[in-house]
Design goal:
- The protein is mainly alpha-helical and 71 residues long.
- The chain has one domain.
- It has three helices and no strands.
- Helix 2 packs across helix 3.
- The radius of gyration is 21 Å and the shape is flat.
- The N and C termini lie far apart (41 Å).
Length: 71
Amino acid sequence: MYRKILLLVVVFFSVDTNGQCAMCRAVVEQGGEEVAEGINSGIVYLMAFPYLLIAVAMFLFYRNWKKSTIR
C-alpha cells in the first residue's frame, strides 16, 4: 500500500529538473557540437561503471553460491 502511495506522489508531484548543472550548461552553450558530444560521452562513461561493478559482484556471488550448493 505504501509503495502505491509513494509511486503516485512521485509521478504526480514531481518537479521539473534540469539535466545539467549550470556550469555544464554554460560550457555546452558556448562550445560547439564537439563539446556536447564529449560531455555526453563522459556521462555515459561515468554511468557504465556502477552497472559493471554490480554485474561483477552478482557474478561472483552467484559463482560462490553455486559452489556452496554443489557440496
